[in-house]
Specification:
The chain is an alpha/beta fold and 346 residues long. The chain has one domain: Bacterial extracellular solute-binding protein, family 7 (D-Maltodextrin-Binding Protein, domain 2, 3-Layer(aba) Sandwich), CATH 3.40.190. Helices cover 46% and strands 17% of the residues. The protein contains 14 helices and 10 strands. Strands 1, 2, 3, 4, 5, 6, 7, 8, 9 and 10 form a 10-stranded mixed beta sheet that branches. Helix 7 links the parallel strand 5 and strand 6. Helix 2 packs antiparallel against helix 11 and helix 7 packs antiparallel against helix 13.
């Protein structure tokens, strides 16, 4: 960020946070923690309390407080209570909170090379995606986050994104022609849906339920756990298992905060953080089938999309890969490192 923009953003965030919460201030990590201090760790997310992301956050809180015998006090702020995903990342960078759990689609708005994660059908399975992100692909992407002032604990799985509509199964790009669909404010997502013939409408997630209810948009796409935990089945009745994008998340902390930890404090923190990444990925994988079953029980028509049908989507979106390389600073090397694990987990 430019210094003037960063200063302006800092001022706005101070006012917003103090007005709504009244307990936050920018932390100074220039000195180490005294042995008698309680180390307060504030982490924010944008999901409902029933979402696995928040469930894993609560497990992190319980474990870190337990193993440290109360040395750490973790405060979890779910449901966008401190702002949306982008605001949470900015607050973490600036030191107003210590950590957050943004989706990859939000992180790519800070550095376009991260858009490699958002490319359509770049990952064949969640296992391949997590292996890549915590492997060679992550070795390329993690330094980008560090340069922003963030410490990436690890990449996590939020699942593949599926399309919901009303009375309109989506099994080919032709089914999307003229469909107004809410997307994230992500150029790769927008370009992909345009390539498939849809009319993508970037919109804040907080506005989505009302927009669907009032018919401002026809459709939306999200991981199944987001669709169900936010009760979008109340305003959409058809779920198509397209799996067009993989939704990853990253457990991030303010780098200065992390560097201020030393000795046993850092050991405890690293242990609980590692378990968070493991717990969240397991929760998502364990609950995905249950969420799909819940969608059917809630009255949604669940539509399978075959590998052959997905191949048609892939072919139609080939131009998006060129866009990533030619316009958004990507490279074939990054794409290859994303895709290299696919054949290992067929």
């Amino acid at each position: 960020m430019k210094s003037k923009a960063k200063a302006s953003l800092a001022a706005i965030l101070v006012l917003v946070i103090l007005a709504n919460v009244g307990i936050f201030y920018k932390m100074s990590y220039n000195k180490k923690h005294n042995t008698h201090d309680t180390i307060v760790v504030r982490i924010a997310n944008s999901v409902a309390t029933s979402n696995p992301i928040n469930q894993a956050s609560d497990i992190f809180k319980e474990e870190l407080e337990r193993i440290s015998n109360g040395r750490f006090e973790v405060r979890v702020y779910p449901n966008s209570s401190l702002g949306g995903d982008r605001q949470e990342v900015e607050s973490t960078v600036l030191g107003y909170i210590q950590g957050c759990l943004p989706p990859s689609g939000t992180l790519s708005s800070f550095d376009q090379r991260l858009m490699v994660i958002d490319l359509p059908f770049v990952f064949k399975s969640g296992k391949a995606a997590i292996a890549a992100l915590n492997g060679e692909l992550g070795e390329e992407l993690d330094p980008i986050l560090v340069n922003m002032g963030l410490h990436p604990v690890g990449w996590t799985e939020s699942g593949f994104r599926y399309i919901t509509t009303n009375n309109k199964p989506i099994t080919s790009p032709s089914d999307l022609k003229g469909v107004s669909i809410r997307t994230m404010e992500n150029p790769i997502h927008v370009a992909s849906f345009r390539a498939w013939g849809a009319s993508p409408t970037p919109m804040a997630f907080s506005e989505l339920f009302t927009a669907l209810q009032q018919g401002a948009v026809d459709a939306q796409e999200n991981p199944i756990m987001v669709t169900m935990s936010n009760r979008l089945f109340e305003v959409q009745n058809t779920l198509s298992l397209t799996g067009h994008f993989f939704s990853a998340g990253c457990f991030l902390f303010n780098q200065d905060f992390y560097d201020s930890l030393e000795g046993q404090d850092k050991v405890w923190f690293d242990e609980a953080s590692e378990h968070f990444v493991e717990n969240l990925t397991k929760l998502v994988r364990d609950q995905t089938d249950g969420y799909i079953q819940k969608a059917a029980e809630s009255g949604m028509t669940v539509v399978d999309v075959t590998p052959e049908q997905k191949d048609v989507f892939i072919a139609a979106a080939s131009s998006v890969y060129d866009l990533f390389i030619n316009q958004y600073g990507g490279s074939q090397e990054l794409i290859d490192k994303a895709m290299m694990y696919n054949d290992m987990f067929d």
